[in-house]
Amino acid sequence: MMEFWKMNGAGNDFIILDNRTLKASPAQLEALARQLCSRRICVGADGLMAVEAPRSGGDLRMGFYNADGSVGEMCGNGARCICRWVYEQGLAGEVQHIETTAGLVTGWRIGRQTYRVELNLPSVLEPARPTALGPAGYVELGNPGVPHSLYLVPGLADKSLAELRPLARQLRHDPAYPKGANANLYDRLGPDHLVIRTFERGVEDFTLACGTGTGSLVALLIQTGEVTGQGVQVENLGGTLTVDALCQDGVISRLYLTGPAVLVYRGWLEDFPE
Q1: Catalytic residues, which ones?
Q2: Residues with Cβ < 8 Å from 271, sequence gap 6 or more?
Q3: What is the pLDDT of residues 219-244, one digit of tens each?
Q4: How far apart, in whole angstroms, are the C-alpha atoms of residue 75 and residue 83?
């Protein structure tokens, strides 16, 4: 019997396992991610997060696995959910410190279902990388960073996912990105008001929200002068995320993501695919 938590951040959903007691190896966790994240035949989720003992002074360490079992560097929506998990378990107070592959992430409890995390800063920020579709922004948050391609699609909010899927899939696998990239299609709705649709690697489809994609988009548009970086509202399919940034000499020094961290249910898994 295996205990788990099911959580979501703006519809981006995750299974959380406490690997301090489970003691699964990385290979076993990769296999569990493929099994447990499969929708309709198991719990179903965009990814699996394994809570590990800290190594570098954090409250806990977060291992992130995409639904296909591949390892992810970081997940902004997942980090908010882990921050709530840590708080609910009594392992940290109103401020949480989570170790990730991309670096240390600090979180703050804003309300029962609302958390803010400080995202990793961009290690790569290119306003216009050449792709088969034309110039696209490219951002990696953290080091090693989460790769995000950012492509402007006018009228995005009115387009169906079926209409957008071929474009997003092409961008996701473009040769310009040696390790692949999350494909983020975006549009501007107004001052500091954006809309985004993210086709995520490892899920290989659109997800309802992407925290690092949202943060990457705002970081890019701060660099190009298209948003202020203060209270930027980004409409994801699953809800609105807010990004705030501090800049020093034209360079982002702090990047914050605020949004929901919802506990859907806790459960115990007895039978699952092998």
Answers
A1: 75, 210
A2: none
A3: 999 999 999 999 999 999 999 999 99
A4: 12
Residue 184, SS3? Answer: strand
User: What's the pLDDT at 272?
Assistant: 60
The SS3 assignment for 215 reads helix
The residue behind tokens 């392992």 is 91
* pLDDT above 60 (res 273): no
In this model, does residue 274 exceed pLDDT 70? Answer: no
pLDDT tens for each residue of 51-89: 999 998 999 999 999 999 999 888 899 999 999 999 999
- Cα 5 to Cα 61, 78, 193, 208, distances in angstroms: 16, 12, 33, 19
Q: What is this structure's pTM?
A: 0.93
> What is the chain's alpha carbon radius of gyration, rounded to the nearest angstrom?
18
- How far apart are alpha carbons 133 and 221 in whole angstroms? 19
The answer to whether the CB of 38 falls within 8 A of the CB of 269 is no
**Residue 271 structure tokens:** 């039978």
Q: Crossing angle of helices 211-223/76-88, nearest 10°?
A: 130
- C-beta of residue 99 within 8 angstroms of C-beta of residue 58: yes
pLDDT in tens, 149-204: 999 999 999 999 999 999 999 999 999 998 899 999 999 999 999 999 999 998 99
Full DSSP string of 58-127: SSEEEEEEETTS-EES--HHHHHHHHHHHHHTTSS-SEEEEEETTEEEEEEEEETTEEEEEPPPEEEEEE
Mapped to the 3 state alphabet, what secondary structure does 129-151 carry? ECCCCCCEEEEEECCCCEEEEEE
The 3-state DSSP class for residue 272 equals coil
78/16 Cα distance (integer angstroms) = 9
Question: 259 near 244, Cβ under 8 Å?
Answer: no
CA 10-15-21 angle, to 5 degrees, is 140
